[in-house]
Amino acid sequence: MIEKARQAAQRLKRSLGEGVEEVCEDGRGVVVRVRLDSLLAALEFLKEDRTAPFNMLSDATAVDWSTWSEKSQKSPPATRFSIYYNLYSIPARTRLFIETGVGEGQAAPSATGLYASADWAEREIYDMFGIRFSGHPDLRRVLMPEEFEGFPLLKEFPLKGEDPQDDPQE
What pTM was estimated for this model as a whole? Predict the structure, then answer.
């Protein structure tokens, strides 16, 4: 099944050209890294692909790369955040990941026009990381209370609260 994902990634690369930065495979499977300005074109291409239509957005999540390990053998990402879209083709029974980089304070385009499931996934990314999605129909917190300050999955978010009762050892 992974061969169908490889072929879809190559068709996407031919279609978008410079919009595709890299195609690789890792423990998840096939990962296609696209430029932020090519994200919606990539998602639309894959959804409409006749050979393996990636008609289901299983999940979307983000990673904060702000504390890159010096011991890593790879070079640090060019942007602070990466957003990952986990796509699945029901007819082809294969999975493909789309990755795009997002800078701090930069907004990503919303995929809600292509995948209804992007609504909650993007809201969760906003709620946990503070990444905004332009064109999202209802971008507001979904897990944390509206009055909550900060974004819990940012690397600089404090692990302990301000209340002395938060740490009974003290």
Answer: 0.89
